[in-house]
Amino acid sequence: MDNISKILDAIRAEGQEEADKITAAGQKNVEEIQKLYSEEAGIEEGAILKRALKEAEEITQRGVSQAGIESRNTKLTARRAALEKTFELAAGKLARLPEAEKLNIYERLIGRYSGSKEVTIVLNDADCKAFGKKLAEAAGKAHNLDVKLSQQTGDFLGGLIIQEGEVETNCTFEVLINDRKKETESEVAAMLFA
What we know:
By secondary structure, this protein is α+β, with helices and mostly antiparallel strands. It contains four helices and four strands. Belongs to the V-ATPase E subunit family. This is V-type ATP synthase subunit E family protein.
C-alpha cells in the first residue's frame, strides 16, 4: 500500500505542480490582458477627453458669437428707436412752428406740388381753423391758382394734402419726413452716435 500511497502522492504533487503552472500562466495572461485593456482605456480616455474639450470650446465659441450677435442686435434696435424718436421730434417741431412760418411752407408746397390750375387743400383741424382761408387766398395769388379749402380736415400732425380731381398729393409732415428719412438717416445717425 505504501507504493500506492507514494504513487498517489506523486500524482497529486504532479497535478498540483501542473495546476500551479496553469494558474501562474493564467495569472500572467490576466495581467497582460489587464495591461492591454488599461492601455487601450487610457488611449480611449485621452481621445474622449480631447473630443470633450474640443466640443466644449466650440460650444463656448458659439455662445460668445451668439452673445455678440445679440449685443449688436440690441444696439441696433436702440439706435433704430433713437432715430425714429428723432424723426418724430422733428415732425412735432414742424407742427409747432409759428403760423407765419407754416403759411410760408404750405404755400411753397402748394406751388411745388400742384399740377393744375384748380386745387383743393386738406389741412388738419387746428391749421384749418387757424389760417385755412388765409392760406387758400395767399397760395392762389402767389401761384396764380384757384385754391379751395376742403370742408373735411385730415387726421395728421401737420402739412397738407393737395387734391386735383382724382389725384391726391400727400404733403403731410409725416409723409415728407418719411420720404426724407432714407436720404438723411445716415447723417442723423452720424450726429446722434458720433
